[in-house]
Amino acid sequence: MLSYASKRVVIGILTLLAASIIVFAVLEVVPGDPARLMLGMNATEDAVRALQDQMGFNRPLILRYFSWLGNLLTGDFGKSYTYSVPVIDLIKERIAVSLPLALISLALSTIIAIPIGIFAASRRGSTADTTAMGIAQVGVAIPNFWFALLLVYIFAVVLRLLPAGGFAGWENGFWPSIKSLILPSVALALPQASILARVTRSSLLDVLGEDYIRTARAKGLSRRKVLYHHALRNALIPVLTILGMQFSFLLAGTIIVENVFYLPGLGRLVFQAITQRDLIVVEGVVMILVATVIAVNVLVDLSYAIVDPRLWSRK
Fold first, then answer.
1. Quick count: other Cβ atoms within 10 Å of Cβ 169?
2. Is 183 exposed, middle or buried (0-12, 13-18, 19+ CB in 10 A)?
């Protein structure tokens, strides 16, 4: 188990290193002068040269990369040109919104999807199965920004039960903050729940067709016991894969939903930094998101070994 875990961690570190090279290359080696992009095309030459000197744009590319990477490892993400504050402070402030939003959305998606997937698989070919998968297909097809606007209209404008946008702030209480995240969480969770429900059903149906399942049934075990004690655990690996991908998407792909609900999260920060040409902020946020995605994938790999010990016992 230790060897299996060590290999996955090493792969994760190497992937993060490769990702840092790509992020640096894309955002630092953009066509044109990065300093002029940040200041705008109407900036004076003196202002451009001053920013180039301040941010080290005049140094050789390889030195800039290793300097940037070394600063990242020490927690120094640079200073935002737009906000004039350390980038790490902006990230800490915004992740307090994006992380709970992603976690709540993932919890809602899981709570909704897995029971529906199990229900549909246990009734394969029935009207209930067809109806459940039809609803799931609709959920996949609905754009989450359109669904978000629909939720705002129903629950904020018509019923006046939940806020239409903004974030109350954790310092103003737990419940007001959670209320601010309910609608965006549901908007994010719906398409993910639809995908997860379909994957759960397909994975369970594959397992239910195996010989050992038929043997268990032939020994007199009830259908329910076979489903929950034998089939479900063996069907979890594809489900865990999708869960890992979904968390990564929910954390990194909230730009549209956060802008719809005016949430001060990482997605909105990236959007603002791009429009303001604040490349330092974009680099820092993207690397945080990449590191989170890689860490989640490593944890998913390790969870495979817990669900199916054969994966690491063969290593």
1. 13
2. buried
DSSP 254: -
What are the backbone angles phi and psi of residue 63, rounded to the nearest 5°? Answer: -70, -40
Q: CA nearest 139: which of 166, 117, 164, 161?
A: 117
Global pTM value: 0.82
The structure tokens 């669900």 sit at: 307
Query: What is the mean pLDDT of each successive set of 10 residues along the chain, which is 315 residues long?
Result: 78 90 78 66 77 73 86 87 86 90 90 91 88 87 84 91 88 90 90 89 87 81 79 82 80 76 87 81 87 85 72 55
Query: Looking at the domain 93-276, which fold is it?
Result: MetI-like fold (1.10.3720)
Of 136, 127, 125, which is closest to residue 208 (Cα–Cα)?
125
The answer to whether 273 and 91 are in contact (CB under 8 A) is no
- Give the other-Cβ count within 10 Å of 209's Cβ: 10
DSSP class of residue 245 equals H
Place of tokens 């109350």: 168
Q: Where are the domains of the chain?
A: 2-73, 93-276
Tokens of 117: 């997937």
Q: SS3 of 86, please?
A: strand
